Amino acid sequence: MISFKxxxxxxxxxxxxxxxxxxxxxxxxxxxxxxxxxxxxSTLLKLIAAIERPNGGTVTVNGQNIGKIKAGAVPYLRRNxxxxxxxHKLLFDRNLFDNVMLPLQIAGFxxxxxxxxxxxxxxxxxxxxxxxxxxxxxxGGEQQRLCIARAIVNRPSILLADxxxxxxxxxxxxxxxxxxxxxxxxxATLLISTHDENILREFKGRRLSLKQGELQS
Length: 217
Known about the structure:
Mean pLDDT: 93
Strand content: 15-25%
Low-confidence stretches: none
Helix content: 25-40%
Order of helices and strands: EEEHEEHEHHHEHEHEE
Radius of gyration: 17 Å
Largest sheet: 6 strands, mixed
């Protein structure tokens, strides 16, 4: 499903975020990306989502070569991905319902079917009763759950989460991880970057550890 073969990523100025990374992720796996701040975890996830492109090597997602994919094909690739990044990119001038509806509007879904999906996603994360609220009225944990609802509303096969429990208290962090676990149990593939040792102890999954852009054995 996901394959990295000798992948390198350099940013302007010569900074090497990733150096000759190779690994594979099978369908249905739960993977934890670990490592220090700046180790390359966020860059790795952005390569999978075609937010960034590799300078060397090959990134393959669902049979598509990310380095060669045309810009017009990227939205179709992302229909199979749920993206949860540290900068939430919530729309603070729209209510919760409309925030979650947006990906379905972009994809051209029927409005009636979209509304059903939005409410199902909000219910899954415990926010259905607040669908008319605006994001600024939510706590940090609730905003993170809103991001998850938006990420899963199109029922993706792959979920990518970059430090999804950062800055949350232990109870909120465990609640977020329980949501992820429920999606993993129904067959979704998850890649979650984290430095939270409590989560790593509590939730089972294969670790990929990065250090200064290199994958540790």
